[in-house]
Every structure is written in C-alpha cells, then in structure tokens.
Amino acid sequence: MRYRIIVSIFALISLALLPATIAQNRGFGQASTSTQPDKDVTPGPGWKTCPRCTNNKQLASANKAYNVEGHAFDPHDLSGVWGNNGIELDVKNVPAFTPLGEQMFEATRSEIPTTNSKDGMLICDPLGFPRLFAYNYGFQFVMLPDRVLQFYEWGHTWRDIWTDGRKLPADPPQPRWLGYAVGRWEGDTLVVEGSGYDDRSWISEDRRNRIRGFPHTDQMRTVERYRRTSYGTLEAEITITDPKVFTRPWTTKGKVEVRPNAELWEYFCVPSESDDYNKRLIDAAKQSNK
Amino acid sequence: MTLRRAFLLAVLTLVTVFPPLSGVVLAHHSRAHYGNEESTTKGVVLEYKWRNPHVFIVWAVKDQSGKTTQWIGEMASLTSMIADGMTKDSLKMGDEITVVAFPSKNPGSAEALIKKITKADGTVVIDNSRVPNLRAP
C-alpha cells in the first residue's frame, strides 16, 4: 500500500511538472561540449556576447553577475534579450487540417526526403511571423510609449507592436511577412494580436520530420500572450487561427529566459552565402537521396 | 518498500521528468542524410568557411596509394560554434587536422557532419557532443 502511495505521488509530480519542463526545453539551453569556453567570447572589453554565443556555463555565470535571481522587476517592462532559439511550436498538438489545408500542407512536401527543398529559408526568404516566434536565435523587446518593438537576431529584423489603441486593419493595403500587430495589457500580460500576413511564409517548418512546412492563408490571425513572471523569465504563448487551413485554433505555450549579458548579433541570411552552402552541401544531400 | 527502492524510484522519476538540457540547438536543415558510422581522417585544411548558415571546412585526405580526396564537412551556425569554443581564427589553410565525422550515406560521397577536429599539436579545435542531436529531425 505504501509503495502504491509513493508511486502515485511521484507519478502526479511527474505529470504536473512535465509541461513546464517541455516548455523550458523548447526555448532554452545548450548541451555541453568539451570545448566550450568558460568565459564569454566578445569583441572586447565592454562588448557583450550574443544570445547563442553563450553556453550554459557562461549563462550561469552571467546570471550570477547580474543578480538575475530575485532581481526586482516591473511586470509591465518586458525590456531585454530573451532566449536563444525561439519557442518551438507544439507539434504534438497540431490541429486537423481542412481539405484546403491538407492540400496546401501536401504542396509543401519536399522533393527529397531529408532536407526540405521547398523551404524558403534556403533562399533567404523572410521567415515571417509566427515562424520568427518559433525560430529566432533570441529576440529583444524595447518598450516605447506608443509601441513595443520586437527585434529578432535571425534576419536582424523587427516588428512594431502598436500599443496606442489602434485596431488591426480590417483590409490591409498590403499583406506583410510580419503582418500587422497591436498590443494591450490585460493585467500583467501583454496581449498581442496580429493579422494581415503574407501567405508565402510558413507558420513553421514541420519539425516532426522536416519534409513539410505548416502553411497559412491571408486569413491567419495570431494572438500572443507575454507575461514576465520574474526578472529572468518570460512566459510566452501563441494561438494561431486560420479557418481556411485548420479546423481549430493551435496554441503553443513556452517560456524563455533573459540573457542578461547579451546583445542581439547580426544574423543575416545572405543569398550569396546560402547559394554557396546549398550548392556544396544541400545538393550533395539531394544526390544521396536519388 | 525499502528506502533504497524509494530512492531509486525518485531518481528514475526525476531523470524522466528533467532530462538534461539538450537537443534545443536545432539544425538549420535536416541531417538525416548523414550516416551513423563515425569516420576518422587525417588531412590538410583547404578552406575554412566561417559563415552562416553553417560553418564548414574542406580538407584534403591522401590515402596509401597517394590519391587525394577533398572532403567537405559542416558544423552549425556561427553563434552556436562560438558557444562551443570556435572562432574565425580557429583554423587556417594548410593546418594539419584529424577529423572525426559522420559521412553521408551516399556511397562515394565525401560529405560529412563534423563531430571533432584536432590539430597536429593536439589542440582540440572543436569537440561537439551535440552532433547526434543535430542529426535528429
């Protein structure tokens, strides 16, 4: 009997903690390697590192140096550099497709079974939103009186989240890769609504096997919810709705950690570099799959 | 239930619930075309491309018959490699290196996913234990 009780307690603790653990692993951390340096690699004194340039050891040291644990914070100030890898979409919870959605999903199928030959990333198309939510190498919030700027290391780009009370455009004059975004506070949660997306982008590559991408139409709408639960932690949630593609909304919850010693670095997708890489490495992969 | 059994159960539970942080530095592309067999080659650096999307090197390997093969091997993005201790100055043309890598499954291919590079003087340039994770979809 005692054994059963103890087993039950452990099982309950496991179930209760599992979602948080998955969320943490989605957005944070790097496994150690034997060559990882103890100290940050920076351009010189006074210069900071980049979110992904920091390994776990360096991050622990930075968190200590900047007194991240227990540091005072204003929950309405989301300023800072967050995470190093985006928040991977919850692919265990992908909604069923509509018939059109299924057709669009199949159209993204790669011509080869390993690397997705149809991924616009290979030719430096903008990732768009919400792919940048899921894949960004770290992002930074800057709070301004009328808007919040969200900068991304990947593509070295940004989007404006307007907080001045304006509404989303009913019929935007031009669809945009990053759409149009407006934000408001609900208690301590910044709620961001987005629409007006260019349908050429993918919601994300399908990380279950990387042979397809999740498509969307210009009817896609997104709702993000950001809540700073401590100085060092930002909870982030996104709900993607596109009734033409999915039969229900698709929600992903995760969290990212502050990078207290970080500066977003320059990650441009450079067509000439990607072309060289594709010819020399991706084309070899294509050959190996013939 | 003995204390030892309870302790073992607790350890098993924690390991299941809190796996080590891993597998989050995801590949730009799938690595499924690389095999699972490690190969070790000695050669000379011909190119060191310190660039995105993935850092790669080309190195020349001479076999016993004197025939030279040019291998090309990729790693991860610049910023991931910096975290692993590599910089733009880690290698230069002409360096003699030993490379542990996972070659492509394609017979006759000289393309590989790099795990470890050691210089002739024993300096370990990179020892990337993340490679098995990087290969996963």
Write the layout of secondary structure elements.
The complex is a heterodimer of chains A (290) and B (137).
Chain A: H1 2-27, H2 56-65, E1 80-82, H3 99-107, H4 131-134, E2 139-143, E3 147-152, E4 157-162, E5 180-186, E6 189-195, E7 204-205, E8 213-214, E9 221-230, E10 233-241, E11 250-257, H5 271-288
Parallel strand pairs in A: 4-5
Antiparallel strand pairs in A: 1-2, 2-3, 3-4, 5-6, 6-9, 7-8, 9-10, 10-11
Chain B: H1 3-17, E1 39-49, E2 56-62, E3 68-74, H2 78-83, E4 96-103, E5 111-119, E6 124-127, H3 131-135
Parallel strand pairs in B: 3-5
Antiparallel strand pairs in B: 1-2, 1-4, 2-3, 4-5, 5-6
Notable traits:
heterodimer, A: alpha+beta, nine-stranded mixed β-sheet, 23% helix, B: 137 residues, alpha+beta, 3 helices, 6 strands, 19% helix
Brief summary:
The complex is a heterodimer of chains A (290) and B (137). Chain A has helices at 2-27, 56-65, 99-107, 131-134, 271-288; strands spanning 80-82, 139-143, 147-152, 157-162, 180-186, 189-195, 204-205, 213-214, 221-230, 233-241, 250-257.
Description:
The complex is a heterodimer of chains A (290) and B (137). In chain A, the strands form two sheets. A nine-stranded mixed sheet of chain A has the order 1-2-3-4-5-6-9-10-11. In chain A, strands 7-8 form a two-stranded antiparallel sheet. With 290 residues, chain A is α+β, with helices and mostly antiparallel strands. Chain A is 23% helix and 22% strand. The longest helix of chain A is centred in the first third of the chain and has 26 residues, at 2-27. Chain B is 19% helix and 34% strand. The radius of gyration of chain B is 19 Å and the shape is globular. Chain B has a five-stranded mixed barrel. Chain B has three helices and six strands. Chain B has 137 residues and is α+β, with helices and mostly antiparallel strands. The chains are: A alpha+beta (290), B alpha+beta (137). At the A-B interface, helix 1 and helix 5 of A face helix 1, helix 2 and strand 6 of B.
